[in-house]
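queue> pop job 88
queue> type: inverse folding (structure -> sequence)
queue> payload:
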């Protein structure tokens, strides 16, 4: 009987120690994850031209999720995106299919010496913290993208690093409106990029992220909507983050 009692007590002690150890481990993991978690959007938009543009009106796609929420809208409305020229008037438009910033300017004049190989470039960029964890696995249905997202197709990853990190890659189309007067040989390039990234440290630093970019090359005068080529890399990085109540 004494032996049975001792074995029972020994087993109880082992189970108690194991329970305490697991609880302490889970508590440390959860606390470390919450205290180090950082979610950030990186946004950039560039417009390049090798010739003067006059009477300019642009509707540029702004990244937004399917419900219209965007990490960029508030800062764009307040002109807090670094790089917006003083001569640009900016207004935000929600079309039901996508969110756009309307840009109007009397002219965009490149400095002397501008060439096709060395165009005049205006760059807007911002790092914007997110108040919640970013869905980097399924940004098409959950996170900001340049919308509308049309003709989405799987594609080979252009960056070997994205493929090596487990990323999935796709191409798609979105829309842009441009109206301006220009020389018939003028070349205007539009490019915009968005990266959503989560980072944390539990024993070692880890991240996951998605990248999206859109690109369009235009020649001469413009007066209407045109398709814009989009590219998406999603599901890049680590997805073994602990499930905790944030």
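queue> result:
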């Amino acid at each position: 009987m004494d032996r049975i009692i001792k074995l029972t007590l020994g087993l109880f002690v082992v189970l108690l120690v194991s329970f305490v150890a697991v609880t302490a481990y889970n508590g440390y993991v959860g606390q470390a994850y919450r205290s180090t978690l950082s979610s950030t959007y990186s946004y950039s938009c560039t417009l390049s031209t090798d010739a003067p543009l006059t009477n300019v009106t642009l509707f540029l796609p702004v990244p937004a999720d399917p419900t219209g929420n965007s990490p960029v809208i508030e800062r764009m409305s307040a002109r807090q995106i670094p790089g917006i020229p003083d001569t640009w008037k900016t207004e935000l438009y929600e079309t039901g299919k996508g969110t756009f910033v309307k840009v109007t300017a009397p002219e965009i004049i490149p400095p002397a010496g501008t060439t096709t190989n060395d165009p005049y470039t205006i760059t807007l960029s911002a790092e914007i913290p997110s108040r919640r964890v970013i869905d980097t696995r399924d940004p098409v249905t959950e996170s900001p993208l340049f919308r509308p997202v049309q003709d989405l197709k799987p594609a080979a990853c252009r960056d070997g690093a994205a493929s090596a990190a487990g990323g999935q890659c796709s191409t798609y189309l979105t829309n842009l409106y441009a109206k301006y007067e220009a020389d018939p040989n003028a070349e205007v390039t539009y490019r915009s990029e968005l990266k959503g990234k989560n980072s944390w440290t539990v024993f070692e630093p880890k991240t996951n992220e998605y990248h999206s970019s859109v690109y369009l090359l235009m020649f001469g005068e413009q007066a209407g909507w045109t398709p814009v080529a989009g590219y998406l890399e999603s599901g890049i990085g680590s997805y073994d983050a602990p499930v905790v109540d944030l």
